Amino acid sequence: MSSKEQKNKAKVVFCWHMHQPDYRDRLTGEYYFPWTYLHAIKDYTDMLVHLEDNPKARVVVNFAPILLEQLDDYQSQIDAYLKQGSAIRDPMLAALVQEDLPEPGSEGFLELANNCLRAHRDRMIERFAPFAFLVDTLEQSNNNPQQQCYLNHQFLIDLLVWYHLSWLGENQRRDDSRITDLQEKAGGYSDQDRRELLNVIAEQMSAIKPRYRQLQEQGRIELAMSPYAHPILPLLLDFRSLLEAMPDAALPKAAEYPGGDERARWHLTKGLEVFKDFFGCRPAGCWASEGALSDDTLKLLSESGFQWTATGDSVLHNSLKHTANEGQAPENLHKAYRFGEHSVTSFFRDDGLSDLIGFQYADWHAEDAVGDLINHLVAIAEASKTPEDCVISIIMDGENAWEYYPENAWYFLEALYRRISDHPQLDMTTYAAALADPQVKPVPLKHLVAGSWVYGTFSTWMGEPDKNLAWDMLCSAKAVYDRVIDTLDPEQQKEAELQLAQCEGSDWFWWFGDYNPSDSVRDFDYLYRRHLINLYRLLEQPVPESLQHAFSRGGGAPAAGGVMRRGHAPAEGGA
User: Fold this and answer.
1) Average pLDDT for residues 226-254, to the nearest whole number?
2) If DSSP codes are grouped into helix, strand and coil, which group holds residue 277?
3) Helix residue ranges, H only, 22-106
4) Which whole-number Å values give the CA distances from 460 to 232, 530, 567, in the listed order?
5) Where exactly does CATH 3.20.110.20 map onto the chain?
6) Structure confidence at residue 329 (pLDDT)
């Protein structure tokens, strides 16, 4: 290929965002939900293997620091159990190996058993006949409690083993004979089998940090970060940023988040500290939580030394309209941008292409899906007047989408990396590499209209009654925090500060509202209130009675159970 052909290739950046909120109770160390370690052994490891197996592939992997802390914590817990017999503080992981399981028929027994139903029915349960049989038996007994007396300890042991086997990454299933043997055994698992499975989990957890770090050091991936506990920075800085894209939206009763500027800076500083400790380097880029940006946020990211950030394409469309550039060609989406005097460069997610991967391709043959995506990418490249500075951004969860694909998207991701990294018109690259290319010249715009990757607004986190009530709860707690924090000793201050950060995360507000599933809303409503209660206790202040009661109940049935959203708002009257 000639140097001219190489220069004329359009750049394609895949940015995989790895994030789980903090499921820990900071007062007890116990985990309320197992999603961090389950996604670690299924997704963070599989994503590693695909990158290691495709030397030409280049991607950005963004980690939320609060996730990195939990990964370290899990590894420490498992190591301490295997070496010293110390307690594991996640009930599901502990149950995998604990000797004294709840008595059959007891509430604890049924709770553990029913927690094993929380896996994708078609892709993770029905795929394995022994697991499907156990699940069917459990569901029949749930419908007819008289049958529950036939569920014994061995039933629960087998169910727990299969639950964890179903959550393993495809790489372990294909390459680890220990897992093959456990699957072929099908049931009647012994204590030795259970411990063997925990050993596999321990190995996978411990491999995440050094292997991602090695890929970064080899220049094969770019690692990036989000603010520490994944807060919505523009809303911490100014509630009124909600109104830039939604002028008629309802604000919380509180006029502002007390000390929001200081807290936003703290999340970036703390995030950098955790990231550098985990990976040994400073990231060039920051996917601000939920791609939530505003002019004030860009200023803060610039002052913090970040070179790039990104968000959804609706934010760009809103910003172009604001600057009277409605007539701009659609190709303007696939460019680098700089806003005002801020030094940080902004990129914009192609929501249509990202959503094809998130919501459509799971039911396609892998090669057909990748071929369709490449056709779209090539069409964009050929339509660009200057392909050398065309940057096509596909940004999405690196975890939640894959359980909807056959075999954890093994064939899709293999074909994706193989075919795009070898394509004559496409340059699979990273944002840092794109910025280092002198042909990429950021387009200047005066003002960014505040918004996120979801619909180009903050409607997912503020403006709806339950969400606004949650913000008012947080503002009240922060006012108490500000009043008493200096009366505590340094260690108490540190614990309260970290607890406050948990409460400021975006995930709680994401789930509140009638459009989300009742079970998920119940879980996150409970966890949010527990975090606030813990904050008051750490501050040694009375806990408001209102925090003892659920305030959001859900009832909707969104796509993918609500864990993912499409980038563009649904059409009027659409689903």
Assistant:
1) 98
2) helix
3) 35-39, 45-53, 65-84, 91-97
4) 11, 22, 11
5) 3-18+226-445
6) 42
